[in-house]
Amino acid sequence: MSKDAILGAIRRGLKRGKLPADQAAMLDGRLATHPRHLIPARSRIPRAEQIALFIRNVEKEFGTVERIPDLSAVPAAVTDYLAAHNLPPRIVVAPHPELQGIDWSSRPMLERETRRAQDGDLTSVQHAWAGVAETGTLFFPSDPARPATLNLLPDNEIIVLRASAILGAYEEAWDRLRAERKDPLSGGFMPRNLMLVTGPSRSADIEQTLELGAHGPRRLHVLLVEDEPAPRHGSPAEHRAEAGVQPGEPAPPGD
Amino acid sequence: MVQVTSPAFKQNAHRALQDAGLQKALGKAKGAFLQRRAAAVAALPEFERLRDIGRDIKNHTLANLDHYLEVYAANVEKAGGKVHWCSTAEDARRAVLQICRNAGAKTVTKGKSMISEEIGVNDYLEAQGITPVETDLGEYIIQLRKEHPSHIIAPAFHLNREDWEADFRRAHTDLDPNRIFHERRDILTEARSRLRQKFLAADVGITGANFLIAETGSSVIVTNEGNGDLTQTLPRVHIVLASIEKMVPTLEDATNMLRLLARSATGQDFSVYTTFSTGIRREGDLDGPEEYHVILLDNGRSNMIGTEFQEMLRCIRCAACMNHCPVYGAVGGHAYGWVYPGPMGSVLTPSLVGVEKTGHLPNASTFCGKCESVCPVKIPLPKLMRHWREREFERHLTPATIRTNLGLWAWFAKRPSAYRLATRLGIGALSLLARAPWKKNRGAFRRLPLAGGWTQGRDLPAPEPGGTFMARYAKARRQRRT
Amino acid sequence: MHQTRPRVALFVTCLVDLYRPSVGFAAIRLLEAAGCLVEVPAAQTCCGQPAYNSGDRATARDLARRVIDTFLHYDYVVVPSGSCGGQIAHHYPGLFEDDPEYRARAETLAGKTHELVSFLADVIGTAEVTARYEGMVTYHDSCSGLRELGIKAQPRRLLAAVDGLVLKEMEDAEVCCGFGGTFCVKYPDISVRMVSDKVQNIQATGADTLLAGDLGCLLNMAGRLHREGAPVKVRHVAEVLAGMTEEVAPIGEAPAGNGAKA
Fold this sequence. Notes:
heterotrimer, B: alpha/beta, Rossmann fold, six-stranded parallel sheet, C: Rossmann fold, 2 domains, 13% strand
């Protein structure tokens, strides 16, 4: 059988048999403790700067960011964005409780559907689980409330992200994921699909020259909900950031 | 399997150097990757240390690969996926076909995968009546042209905008002849709308994997276009093609590799889509595949473990080595004659298809060392190419003239006085020849018997008159003493 | 400067021995000016790199043993080539993985072996040279010297001390010239293409002189410059640093008054 053949060949190359139990246990220990490696200093900065870094990095990668005071400002921001880009007032919204809780009645002309994306959808409104400042990367773990197709099929993706969900480095997101999620099927913490998105879709396959909007969205717009009080000098969050200790950053509600 | 044309490397290279279109494309592409990588690396002061860590992670994984593969496979299965262990390309092709047949598949969309090229799965499926559609833009045009990629992350590295337009007009037969393709944007729009329909119609999606994660049983793809994500999200069945050395133990290990990958490859800090797939659609999910299969391919890699070529298995396929290689930059990827071009290919290809057919590849290097200096996992590529030359020498695959000349020269080099005499005579003769009355320039030769390799494109400078250094030095010492 | 004069063995290299003895004499002049006692062991031939890079490990080891035995007892071994210097300082120890005695000797030798210009700049601490050179030069970084031995700033620092000399950097100074030992005759098409690119960059600087620290690369670039009829003088960096440019014609050119230019 191929499995035995492959494992056997590897072991022959390594000049040993199957690992003895104690060594296997050591490796399993490494898997269980998943030690962190070097985390670049660029994201080990005070809280306010982390958020600024996130915004800078999204913009560097051709995304756009708009800061809004709270979720109730989403309808106006979405409508204005669509108008500014000459897009029809029609959106597909993720069935996420935070987005479903929004009162859209102030914008009666905005057509909304709540579902996964389909071909022909022009604009989606999606919920981001976290943002990572290090590279301006958005995290989208798939679940019934956050279909992956909303990140892929529409030409324009509008993303609602709480400022409190911005983390410094990817490692903080892994710890949050491990702490928060329990997958009903595998018993682990990984969802079926976890997309890390950094800017709108692009390709450089034609003459190694960048063009936006290859197969996924041409535009990526982040509505950043300022749900975090502006950190005062010497706030605990700031100290944590400076000390490089990150697990358990304020967890956003509703996930 | 892709035809191996590496034995004709010299002819391939010669043709490539004469190909004006190819040279234009290579010239345009050359600077872009280099500048972007340099800028991305300069912006991350920790990059050097991340390289060391990346090397160590991969070494640790390879030293325990059997264990991590088993943990990985168990975790895939917990998430409702299935792992198909495949020793050979043929095993892998059959496994893919069986999954497609079970799914009743007519069309299959594909994300970019070099393993797919390695096992030649497209031709195989097509012969069985299943239509594979490449969806990465570069791979798509390559498929239209019935070619193979010339670069591992930029398959259409060798093409110009005019080629794209011509191929689209030829292949998209319903295309309005008045459609304008002045801009790259126009080409992109055409490809996007064509491929969108293919994504929606496909029964099975096949992607590669940049990493496999033992801790979670996840496969990771890294793309910029989003085609890989559409490929693995829309069809009912997702097949991952991955070779065994894609393994890393944990998310933290993968994170370190990801910090290296995009910077080394495209010079981005992070690619647009880095997607972790773990098993099948969960209850209540509105999208995602109902079947998740991993084709876990060996195809000669396990034989590299424990040999001097094991270090090659650290490779994360970023293409920095070929982007920076002056030989690749001169002849492009097709000249190398198989799936993997450039320095990484010059080490890996002999390992996977045998050095008998591919002996040119490790020899076609000046050992300038640029590849090793940019490799994110510090693979000593020149050293490994030298090891292939050693294997060739041991097995008498080195051309006879080279062996004879080398042997003759070594005989003298081991006998200093014979060496002195022979070199004095040889250089004396050459100097005399340089001063021959019919020569216009006495400082150099335009042609010289037995030196055609040198003089076909450059003059051969004549030796400095007055004899060898050792002769002149000895004479000066004698004069000083008397 | 050392209290007692260090005993330095010059490893001449085959190409300097056969093709450009002036480089050897320039090296002696520079080393002596730096206070070294220079010797040229008569038993030397070749470092073995051609065998090593052709896959003939046995011959490479034989020749390495000879070099080790001949040179081990000096304070330093200095080589006017980054390529041959790299072979001894970088590759020798790896040739004796299964021979602890020679492995140790190879490591000792590696530790005391230096390329000429980096020896002067880094080990001796030479900051001044007395040479004069009227001209605009450009400098090619040879691969082994650059990437195996870290030679980049040293030649530029010393050249800056040469009266009258102006250094103009070329584009892609660190890109290989296409020599590569036997590569240049095994794959002449590719090699010529690489050296043509290099020559284009050299000419684009407008410099009248090309310098480098490795004779193989210099012969290759001089050969191509000549073939293209480019009026660029080609010299080993040691000739300029030692102020010997009046004594010997540039590489590939006939000695003055001894033949017409092509």
